[in-house]
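Continuing the batch. This is chain 6 of the set; chains 1 through 5 are on the previous pages. Same settings as before, nothing changed between runs. Recording input and output for traceability.
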Amino acid sequence: MRVSPTGHPGCHSALVTRLLATRTQVALLVVALLAGLGVLGAIGWVTWSARAAAAVSTGWQPDCGEARVGSHRGEPAIWSRPGWRCEVDVAVVNDSARELRVTEVSARMVGPGSTLEARSLPTDTAPVGQSPGSDDARWDVDVTVPAHASRTITVAIGWRQDGCNTSGYVTTRPWATVRFQVLGRTHAVTAPQPLVLRTFDEPRDRRACPEE
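Output for chain 6:
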């Protein structure tokens, strides 16, 4: 009979079995700890991204050249006359400690499916993105905003020949939204200002206007 090194038959096999079992338990514990750290890291990443996004704000200002801009209830009102065009300077203010990347500016009621007497127009740095049939428009951009800094993105809107021309003030609130990425996650922030158009009842096609 072969005698194990401990002097007892089979003790060596039992010791090996116990060692293997212990190693398996340690390995499982390490895997569990790593998984837990991964979950905590993911939660932390989401939290840091959300905190950074909360420190981002936006606003806009129209530059309409020769087009008239009046006032309505304390807000600029663009006089909607044939051929008008306004560049819109959208400011993105990043008060966070993280760099962010702006990927899109969108605006309500100036898309291809809208009947508003205004439509989205491209600029040199902000082409109009595809949004078939949508009332909303978007401009595709790629602008980096460093931490504690601001950048201005210029988009444009202008006259829509087949828009509704009912006389009065047309207010769209909210209007402009900026979509951006920070720490690998996408967020959006909306400007507080409304878009206000002063429209006029003129003798031309009114089929775009909703029936009363």
